[in-house]
Amino acid sequence: MGTIQIKPIIIVGSGAAGIMAAIRAKKHYDKVIILEQNNELGKKLKATGGGKCNLTNTLDDESFIKSFGKNGKFIRDVIYQFNSQDLRDFFQSIGVQTHCPDGFRVFPHTHSSSTIINALKNYLDRLNIPILYNTIVKDIKTENNNIKYITTNQGDIECSYLILATGGLGYQTLGATGKGHILAQKLGHKITSVYPAMMPLFTKEKWVANCTADTIPKVTIYVDIKKYKKLTATGDLIFTKKGIRGPVVLDFAREITPLFDKYDSIPIIVQLLNKTEDEIIQIFKQLSQKNPHNTILDHLKTLLPLSLSNEFLELLEINPTLTYKNIKGSKKDQLIKLLAKTPLTIIGHDGFKQAMITRGGVSLKDIDPKTMKSKIINNLSFCGELIDIDGPCGGYNLQWAFSSGYVAGLWNLDFTGNFFTS
In the Cβ-directed half-sphere of 5, how many Cα atoms lie within 13 Å? Predict the structure, then answer.
């Protein structure tokens, strides 16, 4: 057993993962320091969930894990150690009440990220954990697979242990630089290909610009390429001047952006009504029987927003004043097909400028999933978005950040609560 270290544990990054790592480490080790390149705490956390801070969700552990797809098995041990109920209990213990107004997403009662940030800042103060703002890590010096000290723009700092919680490339407008990837790579860790995720998408079709006023609930989107038809998402959709956004698009973007490595454009299908052609035909027949003198526009706007109804009729050159009965059979068929499966073509996005999270990052192969400890450097751990883990919308990514930070801050403890190096 080594000797007890007096050098600090250093956490780089003051987002959700870094803050939680610092809190857990401080419970068992006296000297813990957070380094933050920005001039304030949790700058990205402040913008989470549109400022409302969707902390987590109510899924059971296994369902939560499965939502992360092929990388879900990596997060299993972490989530078992600190799950959504643990997170809610933690916030309650520091004075933040949470609730679940829609039965799924969990928010602070105030629906304000400031409530979360202020509570965390106050707790860090009570634990006497200093935050060195405007501090940029330039280099990390190692010896015999151990970190000896880090070089910053404020000078060199020796450390007993280093936890990288720098985040990815998402929210570049809030200061994200991807520096953590550079540092991890220099220490011998592989960085998988990184892509922007959770952001609006641009479409080739220009008609979407005329339909920006309304939200269309519970649509389903899938990629219209045979090899990738299993890539799908369901949720609320909003048209924009350049394309599409909304919760379903934020989820879907993480599947789309890697495909631009292979394709210049990506065809997708939007199921606005989630009905088959036969079901839609029956709906129109029922509407016509009930109100035979109503126009096709009257019928359509009971199913879709008026702007979209008008646009579809114009696209198909159908007179909006005609009754359903008086529309030509070929035009009816085209309308039914368009309503059942609306084709769009994704041609681009704003990159990391608008992306909320990063897909890709530090390879999972060189990280112990039980401890978040590096398999290459003895006194190094990772947590949060920096790692090749990303989930859908709905509190998944913030829960992962807090959970992985919790585990990264705990792993190296002996049974007496002392912190030891290898």
Answer: 22
Contact residues for 171 (Cβ-Cβ < 8 A; gap 6+): 44, 47, 355, 356
Q: Could you give the residue ranges of the DSSP H alpha helices within 113-271?
A: 113-126, 179-186, 247-256
Residue type, 254: R
Please state, in angstroms and rounded to a whole number, the distance separating the CA atoms of residues 376 and 371. 14
- Other CB atoms within 10 A of residue 396 CB: 23
User: Which pLDDT belongs to residue 49?
Assistant: 77
Ordered by start, the domain boundaries in the chain are 9-195+357-408, 200-349
Among the ranges given (12-21, 86-95, 181-190, 406-415), the one the predictor scored with the smallest mean pLDDT: 406-415
CA distance 408 to 362: 15
pLDDT in tens, 151-183: 999 999 999 999 999 998 877 766 677 889 999
Burial 225-236 (b: 16+ CB within 10 A, else e): eeebeebbbbbe
Average pLDDT over residues 126-137: 97
What class, spelled out in words, does domain 9-195+357-408 have in CATH?
alpha beta
What angle, 0 to 180 degrees and rounded to 10, lies between the N-to-C axes of helices 396-408 and 16-26? 30
pTM of the predicted model as reported, rounded to 2 decimal places? 0.90
Residue 58, phi-psi category: left (phi > 0), alpha (psi -120 to 50), beta (remainder):
alpha
